[in-house]
Amino acid sequence: MKSVLTALTAFFLFLSAPPVSASVPEKPGDPVSDFAGILDAPARSRLNGIITQTEQQTSAEIFAVTVPSLGGRSVEEYAVDLFNSWGIGKKDKNNGVLVLVAPNERKVRIEVGYGLEPILPDGLAGEIIREDFVPAFKKGNFSEGILAGVESISRIILKNEPAAKPMS
Fold first, then answer.
1. Does the pLDDT at position 2 exceed 60?
2. How far apart are CA 145 and CA 39, in angstroms?
3. Are 147 and 46 within 8 A, CB to CB?
4. Judging by beta carbons within 10 Å of its beta carbon (0-12, 13-18, 19+), is residue 158 exposed, middle or buried?
5. Distances (CA, A) of 58 to 1, 81, 86, 117, 138
6. Distance of alpha carbon 141 from alpha carbon 127, whole angstroms
7. Angle CA(3)–CA(4)–CA(10) in degrees, nearest 5?
8. How far apart are CA 157 and CA 31, in angstroms?
9. What average pLDDT does range 89-96 have in this prediction?
10. Is 119 helix (H, G, I), strand (E, B) or coil?
11. Rounded Cα gap, residues 109 and 62, in angstroms
12. DSSP string over 50-104
């Protein structure tokens, strides 16, 4: 009888436990984190330079992260979790940008803090993905695509002008 109660207790605890999903990696000291191993050394160096220059001139933080897997989650959910757990952007300005690339799942996401949304809204982020990331990725050149996308994001942040609203 005791073993039946133990088994039932374990079963109900299992049912009440939250679903298990892949956790986001720990925040490294470097804003370029290539957990998927797809960036070449020159691209990493150039990315770090662009990101550092952008932060020095604007205080905005850009992180470029590649992961080998999203662990069964959507790219949007994974990006939000990573963005929040790493605290990307200055707390008082909420001026962070996360570029997330999951090459094995063929997913890219640009997650933008509320403080930068007027100059980098979702529509513009989608345009950057379509025009800068995807063409290079289709050629198998992840370094080129990530570099082009981060350069575009940096230019927009440095320009610091609200994005044009679509005409009705």
1. no
2. 10
3. yes
4. middle
5. 67, 24, 19, 15, 32
6. 19
7. 90
8. 16
9. 94
10. coil
11. 13
12. HHHHHHHHH--EEEEEE-S--TTS-HHHHHHHHHHHHT-S-TTTT-EEEEEEEGG
Each residue of 109-167: pLDDT tens digit?
A: 999 999 999 999 999 999 999 999 999 999 999 999 999 999 999 999 999 888 766 55
CA dihedral 148, 152, 158, 164 (to 10 degrees): 180
Is residue 60 within 8 Å of 97, Cβ to Cβ?
A: yes
| R_g of the chain, CA atoms, integer Å | 19
Residue 115 structure tokens: 């403080």
Q: Answer yes or no: pTM beyond 0.85.
A: no
Residue 96's nearest CA partner among 161, 46, 51 is 51
Instruction: List CB contacts of 20: < 8 A, sequence separation 6 or more.
Output: none
Nearest to 65 by CA among 154, 156, 158, 150: 150
Token representation of residue 44: 């990493």
The position carrying tokens 């927009």 is 156
Cα separation, 18 vs 86, whole angstroms: 22
